[in-house]
Each structure stands twice: as C-alpha cells, then as structure tokens.
Amino acid sequence: MSVRTRQTLHVPPGPQEFPDSPLSRALRQPLLLGVFLPLQTGGWSQSTLPRGTDWTFDYNLELTRRAEALGFDIAFGLSQWLPKGGFGGASRYRENFLDPFVSAVALSAATRRILLFGTVHVLYGPWHPLHLAKFLATADHVSGGRFGANIVTGYADTEPDMFGMTRLDHDLRYEAADEFTAICEDLWAGADNLTYEGAHWSLRGAYVSPRPAYGRPILVSASGSPAGFAYGGRHSDIVFVSSPAGEEFEKAITALPAHVARVKQAARDQGREVKVIINPTVVSADSRKEAQARYQAIMDHADLESIANFTGRHQAGDSRSWLEHSARGRAVGGHLHIVGDPADVTRQLAALHAAGLDGVQLTFYDYLPDLEHFGRAVLPLLEQAGLRTPAEPLDLASPRTPSHPSPYTSPQETP
After folding, report:
1. pLDDT per residue over 110-124, tens digit each?
2. In this protein, which residues make up the domain named Luciferase-like (predicted)?
C-alpha cells in the first residue's frame, strides 16, 4: 500500500472552475452580499437597547429565507466555545449559541439559492480530516453545491481547555490546519484510497464517496496574520478579514486597500485568486439624522460588563485581528460601522469595493426590520451604482441538486 506525502496529495478543482456552480453564479455579482447570522444571544451587538434579534433557529431560518429572496449571496454564523452565561452582563451576551455548522446544513435544506457556510474549529477535540471530508461532501449534496466550510483555528486560550487540550502556537495552528485541509482535498479528489502519515494526522485506506458535486465544497477562512493569509492563499475561495484600523469607517477605509492587497498577493504567490470580504454593521434609516440618533442610542445602552468580559477574553488570546477596535464599539459590533441614510450606506459600500473588497458580510442591530430597510431602500441604489445586478425571481420549486453531470461517478468508478 503506497503512502502519499504532502507533495503527492491530490488537489481537486475548486467550485469556481465550474461555470454553473452556485459559487460561480454568486461571483458574477460585482459586490457579494452576505448576512452574518445571529445564532447567538445578542447577535453581534453588546447593547441593551430593545430589539427583536433572536438566536433561535426559527428566527435565523426566517432571516436567511428573506435574505435569499432579496438576492443575498451568502449566509453563515460565528463559532465560539464559551462557559456558562457567555460574556454575562445585563444581556447575558452569547449565553445561547447554536452550532453554526449544524445550523448551516439545516438552512441549506430549507433554501434554494443562497450559499451556506458552516464554521468549524478543525483543531479542537476529536475532529479528523476524514470526518470533515465526509460531512462536507454530504452537506454539499444536501445543498446542491451551495455549502462551504469556514475553517478556523481558534485564538482564545480558554477554548482548547474545554476539550482537554493545550493551545498550539499561532503559526503552528495554521500549519496543522493546512495539513488538515490538504488531506480533505485529496479525499475529495478521490483518485484512490488514501494512506498518509503526516505531522498531525494519519489515514490508512481512507476514501469518501459520493464526492462533492463541483470538485470540492466552497472553502472560507478568516485571519489577520501572514500565516493566516498564506493558508487562505493555498486553500480558500473566500478570505474574511477585519479592519486593521478599527471600526470607524474613515480610518478603516484608508488602511484597507493595502491590507486587502496583502491577502490577494498571498494567493497569487500560490498561483491562485481569492475573494476578500469584510463584516460591516449597518445602522441605516430614511434620514441621516435618524440613523445617527439610532447609532448613538445603541452606544448609549452599551452593556459595559459584557464588553469588559469580551475584551478581556480577546486580549488574553493571540488573535492578530481586531487589535485597533475600541471596546465601546462592541456595543454596535462588526469590523466597521456604516451609519447613515441609504445614499450614505451606498457610498460607503462603494468605497469598500473600490478598496479591493469583493463583498460584505452584513450584521444589523435589529436584524429583520433592518434587513427589510436595506432591501427596500439600499439595494435599488446599489443596483443603480452598478454594484449589484437584480436578483432573479426565486423559484421555490427548483431542485437543490446540481444540473451538470456529476464528476463523482466518473467512467473509472461507475457503480
């Protein structure tokens, strides 16, 4: 039995190489639109100002379906492992937290067009590449090629403790994730049974079938470090970044072009191209004055206790992201804040696109009504600005299965 090495692992084609793949269709939009789901208590905003945002699956299902109907391209959620009470405070911030991987699989079965990404800490607990390769191939078929994995390595010092583990050093975590993902890619390529002896994982005679419909599932990663950018450059279709200059838009927009360029160059160094997205929180209203008043009200109701706990946890970790974000800005949340009337929001999204960003993963304070406002008042302006093309009517009767001949039943492996 031959043992493959890192140099001989097979790499399947990515979904972008299939013109009819759901990812390829989404990437025809000039600016990708995503919604960052509030799968956790308090969503993304540590404020006690009253709102209807809810962590429950039914709420997130309604939100995802509405985003899909509006033409949004992506939906996915955050992953964190927290002790009892989450970050505490008056809001008990993130006390309840639905698993984003399981949630994304369930949401993919209840939708038809939107891409669903499941966030996974691949270095925690008993995860093995064979597990994830099989699970993702299954999710790929459930979704008709719309499922992806947001591969994260974890930065908090407390999370590995929950699994009885010791946190690996920052760059070593990306080395391990690189090996993990490379093994999954070989399994998805399906050239033969895989026997592999590596630094972190071993397999003997392993195989995954059926294989993904479009070469492999969509792969996503998030980082603010050179090691993370190198990992994304080797494996990811989409790289999720934070602002290197904090949440204030005017400061962020001056720093983002060089930051995004570094991410894209890391991929080009590997002979690849990646798309880069960021997470703004949008606070908008019909008038600029009303939007600014609402923004201030959210800040005035900051849950200071939970913010202090969140800040302490982040500072104890070794993340290279969020370093310039203010503690007070956590009341609103997001990598940067977009505040204003629909024209202001459109101008700021256009500025992000001009800075090299390929998309935005939006968060809102009061998700459902804020999403409705965005769809009614902002989307038409984005279309006028050439940043979006109108969404085709959603056919709820359309199948989720791929329309092209499936590569996982090639002539060499006909059942």
Report:
1. 999 999 999 999 999
2. 34-358
The pair phi, psi for residue 238, each rounded to 5°, is -130, 130
CA-CA distance, 227 to 172, in Å (whole number)? 9
Q: What is the pTM of this model?
A: 0.94
Report H helices in 110-201: 129-143, 159-162, 170-189
Six token digits for residue 303: 């849950």
**Residue given tokens 């692992």 in the structure block:** 9
Q: Which two tokens stand for residue 280?
A: 């703004």
Tell me, which fold does domain 6-389 have in CATH?
TIM Barrel (3.20.20)
Report the alpha-carbon distance of residue 152 to residue 167 in Å, rounded.
Answer: 13
Rg (CA), the chain: 21
The residues spanned by each domain of the chain are 6-389
The average confidence (pLDDT) of the chain is: 93
Tokens of 11: 């790499």
The DSSP-derived string for 259-325 is HHHHHHHHHHTTT---EEEE-EEEEE-SSHHHHHHHHHHHHHTB-HHHHHHHHHHHHHS--SSSTT-
